[in-house]
Specification:
The protein is an alpha/beta fold and 580 residues long. Helices cover 44% and strands 12% of the residues. Bound molecules: glucose-6-phosphate (G6Q). Glucose-6-phosphate is lined by residues 186-189, 239-241, 244, 247, 300-302, 387, 536.
């Protein structure tokens, strides 16, 4: 199978093209009998009964009663220590959650995923991002064909190219060394690479500046390129489909920007490479398909940062470190597949999240990394979880009778503490938090006189979890001599759930483990919620409507398309202010 195409053998037969262009079947695929609706299970009923106990659980009392709670409700694997003791759970609740995963057939579903079955049923596709990190020589099949050799063929080509850019063998059209790599992509073709570049900055060579243009807003392209020299700039156009309007518009703008100085169409070949599954469109754009790095339709956009979509990451950190990143993903795949649910980090995170969402009714989750390098991690997870599980119908098309994805959001600590933590501590809606930190910093800045930054950072993280869980009672506030009228303002209710993920040290391998941890967490939740975590029909409608409106904004006269009075007035106001 060539990099970006399927062999005849592997083409799925009954697939036809739907209006949206994706392969479809004419009859709905059968949902396996073991994939039961969660609310039909005994465990769900048990959890519904336990919810009252969970809501009433007093963390102060629970910790007092069980001196081992902090270690009892924790698990550790692969240098990641998960402390989930500050959740509103007890042993019975955890047992019932684990039973829920079992009754919902999560393990069977995972097996089907790893076996390359077309579990993305609405697009009739396998979901095999795990093959992206499979070791050379292993076997993972889609439609009977082992895809691992194809994965490694692309990885080898990426490595050769990344090395050439890094060591100066690959030069720009005028013979100069590449000094800036600009990845043009959006969504899954942007969020992973930009998150990884920021997270692993300390592992980059620093003499090649990587930048990421995603937004159709021209200011993004302008700002990211205004100080770059086309002679030393390489564009990586990353788009699975190579038809996404934002990416194609930015790529065309980039080509015009480069050619304005280089003045030779032949320069495109030295300054543009593509990452895509669509060789035809890449060639149409004018990029030599020899400079195209492929991946496959069984890799979803938001699950693609370890595919060729990670080309800019590989250029930044080098092929060896990229392979370490892949090894980290693989470590977590193995842990996910083999560890018992109670010790399995993705299962635990998923089940606790589900408990908070479906049984305690919490609507959002804050992911709060106490690590500046991870400052794009929450944004990355926002897409991973919300695009995957923000669904309202089950696999069989019937409505979900339960809540699905919560809102995922967050910013690094300690910055957030001086901004939105107020609401987390004393607001009316509890927000479960995932605190994330590394025990060993990459740079141990500070001194005993000034204070070690990392100790202060981690002290803050531990203090936040403590404050959220145990709060401060009115009696404690009074005992400090606080006037009575101020007591309610200074009281912290406590009992606000959090997980703490304390990891050993940030590295490419650790990042791979963490991303795969959340990938599989998302899988477990989607599996129990019985939704298709691998499609994203919800982004379609807005795209279609925008296409219709574009000519109405830029045309000489507004088109006569019928809109509601709000949209029409906004279009008219826009045109007036643009002098049209
Ligand atoms: C991810 C989504 C979406 C996608 C972008 C970019 O899972 O499918 O975020 O990655 O819309 O798509 P292209 O890579 O095809 O340009």
């Amino acid at each position: 199978m060539p990099a970006a195409t399927r062999s005849k053998k592997s083409a799925r037969k009954p697939a036809a093209k739907a209006a949206s262009g994706v392969a479809r079947k004419d009859t709905a695929p059968k949902v396996p009998a073991w994939h039961v609706a969660p609310d039909k299970t005994r465990a769900w009923k048990r959890l519904t009964a336990l919810a009252k106990r969970g809501r009433a659980l007093d963390l102060r009392a629970a910790f007092k009663k069980d001196r081992t709670r902090g270690t009892r409700f924790s698990a550790e694997a692969l240098g990641i220590h998960l402390d989930y003791s500050k959740n509103l759970v007890d042993g019975d609740i955890v047992d019932a959650l684990v039973a829920l995963a079992k009754e919902c057939g999560v393990a069977k579903h995972a097996k089907a995923m790893f076996a390359g079955e077309a579990i993305n049923i609405t697009e009739n596709r396998a979901v095999l991002h795990a093959a992206l990190r499979a070791p050379k020589g292993s076997v993972m099949k889609v439609d009977g064909e082992n895809v691992v050799p194809h994965v490694h063929a692309v990885l080898d080509r990426m490595a050769a190219f990344a090395d050439a850019v890094r060591n100066g063998a690959w030069r720009g059209h005028t013979g100069k060394k590449i000094a800036a790599v600009v990845n043009i992509g959006i969504g899954g073709s942007d969020l992973g690479p930009v998150m990884a570049y920021e997270a692993l900055k300390d592992f980059t060579r620093r003499d090649i500046d990587c930048r990421y243009v995603s937004n159709i807003d021209g200011e993004d392209f302008y700002e990211k390129t205004r100080d770059l020299d086309p002679e030393t700039t390489l564009f990586v156009v990353s788009s699975k489909t190579f038809t996404t309007i934002e990416t194609m518009t930015n790529a065309q703008t980039a080509r015009a920007w480069a050619l304005a100085k280089l003045k030779d169409r032949a320069a495109v070949a030295r300054h543009f490479v593509a990452v895509s599954t669509n060789a035809e469109e890449v060639a149409k754009f004018g990029i030599d398909t020899a400079n195209m790095f492929g991946f496959w339709d069984w890799v979803g956009g938001r699950y693609s940062m370890d595919s060729a979509i990670g080309l800019s990451t590989m250029i930044a950190i080098g092929p060896a470190a990229f392979h370490e990143l892949l090894a980290g993903f693989r470590d977590m795949d193995e842990h996910f597949r083999t560890a018992p649910a109670k010790k399995n980090l993705p299962y635990l995170l998923a089940l606790l999240g589900l408990w908070n969402r479906d049984f305690l009714g919490f609507e959002t989750v804050a992911v709060l990394p106490y690590c500046q390098y991870l400052h794009r991690f929450s944004a990355y997870l926002q897409q991973l979880e919300m695009e995957s599980n923000g669904k309202r119908v089950q696999l069989d098309g019937s409505p979900c009778r339960w809540q699905t994805s919560p809102v995922i959001w967050g910013e690094p600590g300690t910055n957030g503490q001086h901004a939105f933590y107020q609401m987390i501590h004393q607001g009316t809606s509890p927000v479960p938090c995932d605190f994330l930190a590394f025990a060993k910093p990459l740079h141990d800045v500070g001194s005993t006189e000034t204070g070690m930054h990392h100790d202060i950072l981690l002290a803050n993280l531990f203090a936040q979890g403590e404050a959220l869980a145990f709060g401060k009672t009115a009696a404690e506030v009074r005992a400090e001599g606080t006037p009575e009228w101020l007591v309610p303002h200074r009281t912290f209710p406590g009992n606000r759930p959090s997980n703490t993920l304390l990891c050993e040290q940030l590295s490419p391998r650790m990042l791979g483990r963490l991303v795969a941890l959340y990938e599989h967490k998302t899988f477990v939740q989607g599996s129990i919620w019985r939704v298709n975590s691998f499609d994203q029909w919800g982004v379609e409608l807005g795209k279609v409507l925008a296409k219709r409106i574009i000519p109405e904004l830029s045309g000489a006269r507004p088109a006569k398309a019928a809109h509601d009075s709000s949209t029409s007035a906004l279009i008219a106001r826009y045109r007036a202010w643009r002098g049209r």
